[in-house]
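Tutorial, part two.
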Amino acid sequence: MSYFTIFLLALALSVDACVVSFSYGLKYEKELLKNALLLSVFTGVFQGIMPVIGYFFTCPVKIYIEPYSNIIVFLIFSYLGIKFIIETCKKTKEKVLCIDLKCLLLIGIATSVDAFSAGITLSLYGNKILKPAILIALVTFINSNAGFFAGLKLKNLPSKFLEIFAGIILIILGLKAIIM
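Running the prediction step on this input gives:
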């Protein structure tokens, strides 16, 4: 998988963190830099760790599933893309936002579960994991920060478009695995 493709993957994976941070940016009016950095660090770190876990989870069974890797990659990316789009279309209730350690850990985990699957995909493609994991973490950190401050500035911007776009990127990456 090329670094450009990994970058696109990182962008798509970081959308959840960006949207969560955007939501926080809409609500918070005090300690803005501190809250933005806390969200960005937690989401970035978890987004970088989860592909590593997925990568090493795949290593013991890789020889058995490698012949089917293109189909598996297609299925994983398509599932994630469709999931993004479906979840975007569902109506959600307004949630109370907290920013203590427990909430930050839960946000980090919740926004990075999809990155576990990305680690599996990277393993099947034969990529090394360190550089992609760092790239995913950095892109998520930047997008989370951008999301928070965009929420401050654009209180009425619907985040649904961003999530649908991320879903489309993932589906295209899945199709690319089947075609190439």
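The CA atoms of residues 28 and 152 lie 8 Å apart. In part three we will examine how such features are distributed along the chain.
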